[in-house]
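Action item from last meeting closed. Structure (316 res):
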């Protein structure tokens, strides 16, 4: 039997926040400003809400999630793809921000097992740094490609100057990431464990720490799926079907793929299976994805867990 404690859902926009409830109640729209967030919190308290759900955090959601957590609410994140599938399952065609807020609330009420706690502020800042480093790395690669194609010496010098500036900015971000991880004993221990695994260096370890905070608290299948390295079958009727990796977080899939490539080249325990798959006629990418998946599974030692989602706020 479901609890009667109301659950709220928020559809976050750049300028407004739409608040929906389940069981159904009058929706509310507030400005996405400090005053509007205070009004939203008052409305939640008046209705006796304990849990608030919203879709995966974007830049416009940070102020409201921080304020809600500070006010004592349990803030949960839902996967936007699951919410869209839930709308389809309900047969709902109309889509507005207010309808989406109510839809998120219904999803949170009926499928609490698919909710995840909002990340801690420190984790958000680390991920932002990691994302910026990845952006700078991509920009450097683009400029290097343009440099190879430059014919005019002045244009080539311009590319070199931009590359030098970008590399300096990337090094500064890298140093800040290294300092913040080293200053946290739990994260430093997690990095030491990760870098002891073949194929995983400090840079890939940093990506795993910043973009996979669940690391250390997952089972084998969940870890591979979250990393985007789990082979998903596609089969119907007499068709034999095929397996392909899909889903997960793209940055993690790239990190584990590169780690698998390094491990297959340098570690005998990974080199022999890789060679066997290649000799059996498997494509190189598949032979590299296999050790990448193997690497996604073992980094799950008993690392101190982040603050769990309060069980008292779950609906049985």
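Sequence:
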């Amino acid at each position: 039997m479901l609890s009667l404690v109301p659950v709220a859902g928020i559809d976050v926009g750049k300028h407004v926040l739409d608040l929906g409830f389940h069981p159904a109640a009058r929706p509310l729209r507030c400005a996405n400003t400090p005053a509007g967030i205070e009004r939203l919190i008052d409305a939640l308290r008046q209705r006796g809400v304990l849990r608030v759900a919203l879709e995966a955090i974007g830049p416009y959601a940070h102020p409201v999630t921080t304020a809600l957590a500070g006010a004592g609410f349990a803030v949960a994140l839902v996967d936007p793809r699951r919410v869209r599938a839930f709308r389809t399952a309900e047969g709902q065609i109309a889509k507005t921000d207010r309808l989406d807020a109510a839809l998120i609330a219904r999803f949170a009420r009926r499928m609490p097992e698919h909710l995840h706690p909002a990340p801690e502020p420190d984790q958000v800042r680390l991920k932002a740094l990691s994302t910026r480093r990845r952006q700078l790395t991509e920009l450097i690669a683009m400029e290097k490609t343009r440099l190879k194609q430059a014919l005019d010496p002045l244009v080539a010098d311009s590319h070199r100057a931009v590359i030098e500036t970008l590399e300096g900015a990337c090094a500064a971000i890298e140093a800040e990431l290294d300092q913040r991880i080293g200053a946290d004993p739990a994260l430093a221990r997690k990095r030491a464990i990760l870098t002891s695994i073949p194929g995983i260096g400090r840079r890939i370890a940093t990506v795993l720490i910043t973009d996979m905070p669940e690391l250390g608290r997952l089972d084998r299948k969940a870890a591979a799926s979250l990393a985007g390295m789990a082979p998903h079958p596609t089969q119907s009727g007499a068709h034999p079907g095929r397996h392909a990796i899909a889903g997960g977080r793209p940055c993690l899939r790239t990190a584990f793929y590169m780690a698998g490539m390094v491990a297959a080249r340098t570690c005998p325990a990974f080199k022999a299976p890789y060679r066997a798959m290649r000799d059996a006629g498997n494509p190189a990418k598949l032979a590299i994805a296999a050790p990448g998946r193997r690497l996604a599974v073992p980094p799950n030692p008993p690392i101190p867990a982040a603050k769990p989602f309060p069980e008292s706020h779950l609906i049985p």
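Note appended to the action item: The chain is about 55% helix and 15% strand.
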